[in-house]
Amino acid sequence: MATFFGEVVVAPSRAGLDEEEEAREETPEDREIRRELEKKRYRQRCSGEIDVLWTWKSGGCGEEPLVCSRFIVAIGKNAAAFLSSFILDSVCWEVVGVVKLWNEWCRTSSTTNVLPTDSFCLFYRLISDPTVLLCQCSCYVAEDQQFQWLEKVFGSMQKKGLQVTILSTCPVADYKTQESTLTLASPFLKALKTKEFQDQVCCPLLEQPNIVRDLPAA
Amino acid sequence: PVIRHILFLQPAVSVGNVGQLAIDLVISTLDMTKVGYFYTNCLVPMVGNNPYATAEENSTELSINAEVYSLPSKKLVVLQIRSPFIKNKYRPFCETLLSWVKSSECARVVLLSSSHAYQRDDEQLLGTPLRYLLTPDLEKAVGGRMQELNWKEMEKVAAYPGISDTDKVLHIPGGGITKLLFTESCSKGIQMAVLLKFCSEGDNIPDAFVLVNYLNEWLQLIKSEVNPSSQWKIPSSWRLLFGNGLPPALF
After folding, report:
1. Which of B48, B179, B202 is closest, CB to CB, to A6?
2. Can you tell me which family this protein belongs to (chain A) (predicted)?
3. Which range, of A195-199, B45-49, B141-145, averages the lowest pLDDT?
4. This model's pTM is above 0.90
5. Residue B68 has pLDDT above 90, yes or no
6. Which of A52, A89, B38, B51 is 20 to 30 A removed from A207 (C-alpha atoms)?
7. Is B247 close to A176, i.e. CB distance below 8 A?
8. Chain B interface disruption, residue of A3, A4, A41, most B CBs within 10 A
9. How far off is chain B from A93, nearest CA to CA, in Å?
């Protein structure tokens, strides 16, 4: 199938909207399923499908934002495991928040006592420098929740010269290159950076036509 | 003809992504400058490095799913959409887009799109696979030009095929948001033209060339000499469309 830069193929038809499907009447079963999904998805009282619960806030929204200078986000089980193995420990880091969400692929809870095999999304703060924040997101954030996740997480922060680092993994098979991926020395690192990022990047930049999608892209 | 107003060109995410590929050719050939982007929750997020890079120096600019490019000399503004719509979000996107079009100085909108080739009726199977549509407001201004160019207007089909007595409706299968944008533009008094090609999924690069040449017949964005296809510049991001190189161990 021909693709081009940035194409994120999910549906069987690449026409993003299947006209026939939209026009078709919902069967009673479809309607029931949709209603149940919506009920489960929109169960959170506060504001929709995703709830970000910060431990220093006594309750609800509308308290002072967290001052943040560095924010490291690990998305996906591999990146989360990396942080658990090499960075996080109970001496230097404390849990300051959790994201509660539900979608058809996974559910997270508001507990901060998680097992590595659970799906979770936790925030940690460096005790010696509370403006350094870390997020471990091993759960899958659905397409229609990604924007909300962004707004709620970044909305709680006071961004003072904020530097964000996003850690994520992709299958080597998805990497587009002239040679076969079989001969590539994997795993390997690639980076994307904004114009504003002035520091040295520790690895080569991601070449076209490779792209990043979903929450890391958001 | 003197172009008095800004022309806004955009693709629909449609079968074969032909509209989007054609837009890639326009942006790449005319070396358009990125002037902004749509910060939207309606499209699947994606990010990568500059898809129109020509050298090491210009290859590190980030690019996301909905970006706007411009070419002031031709009063041309182009939107490129790079990912599919998130479920149930196509309508809000269309509404936002059309209200932006109305509020800005864009006089005319041209939408590049495509439609499933297998849905053609007997008559449509013959002749050109290219079609156009004009909103009533644009029909007044350029309808005559379409006649001169001998272009074919997109046919309406019976609402209930097989029953001869029914109303004829516009049906663009595989066209994504094309029909919605077109019908909304008709009712909002926006001057919009839709240019589409019948095609199927597969290697859609030739379809993109056909569509962009069709566009060029009318708008004359580039000089169409003997072989207009050779005048379009393929962007560097079109490399490796069919996957990586083969492992030598296979042989």
Report:
1. B48
2. Belongs to the PSMG1 family.
3. A195-199
4. no
5. yes
6. B38
7. no
8. A4
9. 31
Q: Mutate which of B241, B242, B250 to test chain A, going by most A C-beta atoms within 10 A? A: B241
Instruction: Please state the domain count of chain B.
Output: 1
Rounded distance between C-alpha atoms, residue A53 and residue B240, angstroms: 44
Q: Which residue type sits at B168?
A: K
Higher-confidence residue of B69 and A216: namely B69
Q: Strand B62-64's sheet: what is its strand order? A: A211-213, B46-49, B62-64
DSSP letter for each residue of B37-55: E---SSB--EEEE-TT--S
Domains of chain A, by residue range, sit at 48-55+65-107+115-170
Q: Does A45 touch chain B (CB under 8 A)?
A: no
End-to-end CA distance of chain A: 25
Scanning A161-190 for CB atoms below 8 A from B yields 175-183
Q: Would residue B247 count as lying in a domain?
A: no
CA distance from start to end of chain B: 59
ipTM of the predicted structure?
A: 0.75
Contact residues on chain B for A5, CB-CB shorter than 8 A: 24, 48, 51, 63, 82, 235, 237-238
CATH number at residue B124: 3.40.50.10900
Query: Who contacts A152 (Cβ-Cβ below 8 Å, separation ≥6)?
Result: A47, A50, A51, A52, A99
pLDDT at residue B67 in the model: 94
Q: Is residue B219 part of a domain?
A: yes
Rounded Cα distance between A110 and A95, Å, is 12
Query: In what side-by-side order are the strands of the sheet with A157-168?
Result: A51-54, A93-100, A121-126, A129-137, A66-75, A157-168
Q: Which of B15, B46, B97 to mutate to test the interface with A (most CBs of A within 10 A)?
A: B46
